[in-house]
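User: Quick sanity check before I run a bigger batch. Here is a single chain. Can you write out its predicted 3D structure?
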Amino acid sequence: MNDNPLATNGTRRRGSARKQVDRVVSKEQARAAFWQMLKLVYPHRRRMTAGIVLGVGVALTYAASLGGMLPVLRVVVEKDNVRAWLLGKADESESWYAPLIEKAASVFPVEDTSEARLHALLILLGVLVSVNLVGNLCRVFSQYFVLYSSHRVVMDLRRRMYRKTLHVPMNTIAGDVSNRVSQFLADVREIFLGVGTLFGKFAREPFKAICVLVLALWIDARLTLVALAIAPIAVGTLWYFGRKVRKANLKLLQGYGQMLGGLEETLQGIDVVKGYARQGHERKRMWQLERRIMKQQMKMAWIEAFSSPLMEVVGVIAASIAIIWLARQTFAGTMDASHFMIMVVLLAAMLDPIRKIANVYNIIQRSGAAATRIFDFLDEPDEISEPGAAALPGSGPREIRVENVLFRYTPEQTPPALDNVSLHVKPGECVAIVGPNGSGKSTFVKLLPRLLDPREGRVTIDGFDVSSLSLRNLRQQIAFVSQRPVIFARSVRENIAYSDDKATLEQVRAAAQKAYAAEFIEQWPDKYETIMGEFGANVSGGQRQRIAIARAFLKKSSILIFDEATSEVDVDSERKIHAALNELRQGKTTFLIAHRHTVMEMAERIVVMDVGRIVDVGTHDELMQRCPLYVALYRSPAAG
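Assistant: Done. Predicted structure follows.
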């Protein structure tokens, strides 16, 4: 039975969790999360740097291709001699690159005939094709290196998240599983898109704009500076829409977590949904969640659909003004046609990277929102052993003392889950814990392996405070068979050998025989290599319980905790489970959360709990004489 009082007060728990998830994220927190995301790239900096450098190569070849259009236009439109034109440019510039221009001019023919101009045009087009080919090769390898590094970043991030999931305290994960799954899927995907876009397009497109800008300044600085008047408008537009995208994406990711939670609840409780004919209700509830997600998706779609065209319109207006100015100069005879055409091409070429940067900025803002959620989780404190934590010496049954323990799942929980609980258990003793639902039985036994830590008081094993022991060593000493046995979607052999992956098949078979599990496992075609369904859905409750007991037989433990579950177990399975349990507990200090007579009577002492307190301790006969609560529990139909 679930003695977690928060399970009976689910509204408060879910409300608290939602309040925590839906908190407002400040710009400083989002910025810090974004820089943390970038730090993940450092281990893969070589390939990412190669991708960025090749991206710069793409930008340079892009500008070179555009610059190469000017001599082509001089040949086709002005019918100039390219050699003479280049030499004239070299004389005008008197710069460090003048010798390079002169060397390039030497490639072209001296004659000024139609055949010579065609020859020069072929040379120019050959150079442009070669430059374009190099640029596209750079693009291919740039994208490959950036994507490779981005995938490695995602692998590293998921590995860190998985490790964190396994090492945070149970109450950090409990009740928030679907949100964590959403972070593994949706949030990490946003990180991948953000990193790939940042180091791919965001590194390439600005360089393309810069290279074209430098080329335009070289050709006509005055006009280019006039066109740059749109820069403040563009930056302001990007900032405004980026902020909107970040906020909308944060709500969208939270919605994904809620949707996954709803889906998980429905699928796990599908028998109840169908049994109560509530398919329509569940469909409507999921539809409402989908509507909320759709609302955020459309908000982001509107922002992203509007921002890029807006940037393009602003750019086109600025370019149109510049073209009018150019046309006036051309009509007045102060500017030749080829100069006019190349400046129009360059202005248009600057608009394309700027338009793409608008989309890129939105993607980066989305990844920043995802990074905030992920790093919030990664910053959660781990379960840790104290420095210099001790290991329990020796082996064999352990002496256990619980001294004045107080435990609350939340600071405001009243009454506490455990209230001033004390108990002394001798080495090798078998103690049954009984009580009504919510009395604190499961909470009590979770203190031993430190799945929960008391707020006050202490728990000792052989005189060692469990908080001073190595967590790994402590948990290796305890075999735990839960009320709902966990069966993984792996082979039977892997499930039984979960505590000892080096166990041989013979050891696994021996454990299964002791747990009375071999009798059904060895009837299956694949025997111990049979793959179990998810959560053991393809076997009965009694079979799941016996597989879990076989797992406990294989673990070399000195303490046994058995949370009896009989709701899904037939009489024959129950008899075999209790027989296996009777053998398993030999030589161990044992705690049995008992519901049936057969388990209660197996114990040497029985602890009666109610509302988080121990109300009586004694043998069965003693409690039948003096404890009304025990008598009521013993005589209840569920204990029969």
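The radius of gyration is 36 Å.

User: Great, the batch can go ahead then.
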